[in-house]
Amino acid sequence: MPGFLASLLPQSLLPKRLRRDRVTIPVVRLHGTIMAGGSAFRPMLNLAAVASSLERAFAVKGAPAVAISINSPGGSPVQSRLIYQRIRDLAEEKKKRVLVFVEDVAASGGYMIALAGDEIIADPTSIVGSIGVVSGGFGFPELLKKIGVERRVYTSGENKVILDPFQPEKEGDIDYLHGLQRDIHETFIAMVKARRGALLKDEPTLFSGLFWTGTRGRELGLVDGLGDMRGELRRRYGDKAELKLISSQRGLFGRRQPGAETVLPALASGAVAGLAELAEEKALWGRYGL
């Protein structure tokens, strides 16, 4: 309907999408463990999985802000930072405010993504923080002996098999890993300081990897307020504010599209590696009692 004709009709007679008193706030849910890859049966939170939803959310015309719901225990620091950067780039390009709402947890990489918000609002019982770096895995140095299998690895380069789970740990390998962790940790700390600035309290354990409730997180300056998405958005934009969920693309059976990945390689992957990855994912959630 042309804008001129719409202006002549009573608001009550116009379709909802044309009413001037209606404010639409696009909502993107970023939930899950942050890892590259994933499949239709086991989707992961990564840039490939959420890029389309973010683009469509920031493209909603007339929206004063984009609301992002986060529920993640962390995972890949690379994917966390890529998602963070994509949100900030779109916010600056589209000139929209970003409001982040924490559900159960925004910890480690989940909190890194939350830093993309111009404001972070958490439930009083949410878990936030864990500003640190962790590398987890499993060792199977005795497994092959027990099942009568000899493993053969040939390399060119003396460090091509460091941290091999089928060999005993080596002190030099662990020292090297700690160096990588320090570099990533320093990047994480710099991001927190750049985004939270003077809001941060002088707390010695702030960057130690500890995590806190939303209430304590607000006291420390990690979050800006306490509340829930629906209540907060209506308080800011009025009772007629409408939340519009921008969901990811769905496949034939209603499952999220896994991008370039396919189910077949996942089914063909080694059982030990698959179980280890699943255990690591569950351990991430388990750290926060979830």
TrEMBL record:
<dbReference type="InterPro" id="IPR047272">
    <property type="entry name" value="S49_SppA_C"/>
</dbReference>
<protein>
    <submittedName>
        <fullName>Peptidase S49</fullName>
    </submittedName>
</protein>
<keyword id="KW-0645">Protease</keyword>
<keyword id="KW-0720">Serine protease</keyword>
<dbReference type="GO" id="GO:0008236">
    <property type="term" value="F:serine-type peptidase activity"/>
</dbReference>
<comment type="similarity">
    <text>Belongs to the peptidase S49 family.</text>
</comment>
<dbReference type="InterPro" id="IPR002142">
    <property type="entry name" value="Peptidase_S49"/>
</dbReference>
<dbReference type="InterPro" id="IPR029045">
    <property type="entry name" value="ClpP/crotonase-like_dom_sf"/>
</dbReference>
<feature type="domain" description="Peptidase S49">
    <location>
        <begin position="92"/>
        <end position="230"/>
    </location>
</feature>
<dbReference type="GO" id="GO:0006508">
    <property type="term" value="P:proteolysis"/>
</dbReference>
<dbReference type="Pfam" id="PF01343">
    <property type="entry name" value="Peptidase_S49"/>
</dbReference>
<keyword id="KW-0378">Hydrolase</keyword>
